[in-house]
Design brief:
alpha+beta, Glutathione S-transferase Yfyf (Class Pi), Chain A, domain 2, Glutathione S-transferase, Glutathione_S-Trfase, Glutathione_S-Trfase_N, Glutathione-S-Trfase_C_sf
């Protein structure tokens, strides 16, 4: 049985959930509560750093969301594919997947970490740099989406990464002045697998430290 370990609010868990729903894959979702020591111990046993998510099938355990989606696409796909089977043709999707994780998700996470975990005043020092990087990333995505409905031409790996990255980053630093990116995000939100992820996370949105930015659009 295929098992995904994670939490509905976790951005990288959401990324893998979108892929699973898109592929129509049967799986068990093991909801992890990191406030529970037994669940923390479980995550340490299946993921090297104890971080969410992790994917298990039999003796195989995978971490890193992009790797999980690539493996699912090879071994659990039907007519729907999330990557072109030609390694060269799939490079743009892989590139934009990495872009979204590093240039959007991680920049957003720096601001969140500064507010939650760092000393007083850290957010004021960290946020201007991270917001500047987000502006550059938003502009690059807006250019990439010129003439495209999906980031790499067809819905796939990069778009699975895009929803949680843009959902949380947009709650902190909106991208409304980028029209193609804004229209793309609306297409993402309308997609049924993404709707399933939104509904699964809805009870936990209040935990996000910038929840007002989510409430304005989704609550």
């Amino acid at each position: 049985m295929l098992t995904l370990y994670g939490h509905p609010l976790s951005s990288y868990t959401q990324k893998v959930l979108i892929a699973l729903h898109e592929l129509g894959t049967d799986f068990e979702f093991r909801h992890i509560d990191l406030g529970d020591e037994s669940d923390r111990a479980l995550m340490r046993s299946v993921e090297p750093m104890g971080r969410m998510p992790a994917l298990r099938e039999g003796d195989l355990v995978l971490s890193q969301s992009s790797l999980m989606i690539e493996w699912l696409d090879r071994h659990h796909s039907g007519p729907q594919r999330l990557l072109d089977p030609d390694p060269d043709a799939s490079l743009p999707a892989r590139q934009w997947d990495r872009f979204l994780d590093f240039q959007v998700m991680q920049m957003m996470q720096q601001i969140v970490d500064a507010r939650i975990f760092m000393a007083e005043g850290a957010e004021e020092r960290v946020a201007p740099f991270a917001r500047g990087k987000l502006d550059l990333a938003y502009a690059a995505l807006d250019r990439q989406l010129d003439g495209r409905d999906w980031i790499a031409g067809r819905f796939g790996l990069a778009d699975c990464a895009a929803f949680p990255a843009l959902f949380y980053a947009g709650a902190i630093h909106p991208f409304a002045d980028h029209p193609r990116l804004s229209a793309y995000f609306k297409r993402l939100v309308a997609r049924p697998p993404v709707q399933r992820v939104i509904e699964g996370a809805r009870p936990y949105y209040g935990w996000f430290p910038f929840k007002d930015g989510i409430a304005a659009r989704f609550l």
